[in-house]
């Protein structure tokens, strides 16, 4: 018998709070070089208009609301299609369905779990009942930007409640009662009312009114720069039209007028 590897552990003392103040009013010198103020103005006012909860901007029109659980909810989003002379629906309703934040130790024992052999893919969704003038099916593409796979085992209760994280994409037929990916009560869910179970029903989605569920995230390995204020980590995705319009939708959009404003130089007060 031979010892091939030895992992030693020790208790690391928690750093003191001294020197970690982040409130501007409480900061003490020395400071880094001061930055100059910047001002961005629109001399003729903003392009967007707000009428109650209805927002219009250029060719876009959508409804904004706030939900106690989902937060920001954008619905009835449409864009004016000059070729058809009417508003075209882009999204019926969109919001964040669930937020899942598991915690793990950044130790050597976890290194093997961060390697995944996966292949990137774009998803194309089309409506076979609507065709462009040249015969293409109207649709759009989902372009993922921040994929992340779970590191928990399938029988772990947190993972059972957040089993939707096993897949980056799910598509289900519309059901008004299926809204929360982690269950109606995420902290008490037993996986029976989650997105994972809804997709396992294998319901037909061909030529149906569907709901597109996209999971995005990241694995955060903490470092000293995260304390006491963690820098922002961001994720994103893109919904891009694919034969949705007859031509490029911005061809008929007039450019903004040139406006002469004071330049940015050392002589500007």
Automatic annotation (TrEMBL):
One of its GO terms (molecular function) is primary methylamine oxidase activity. Transmembrane segments: none annotated. Its EC number is 1.4.3.-. Topaquinone (TPQ) is generated by copper-dependent autoxidation of a specific tyrosyl residue. Contains 1 topaquinone per subunit. This is Amine oxidase. Keywords: Copper, Metal-binding, Oxidoreductase, TPQ. GO terms for biological process: amine metabolic process. It comes from Nyssa sinensis. Residues 39-113, 121-250 form the Copper amine oxidase catalytic domain. It comes from the Eukaryota. Its cofactor is Cu cation. Belongs to the copper/topaquinone oxidase family. Gene3D superfamilies: Copper amine oxidase, catalytic domain.
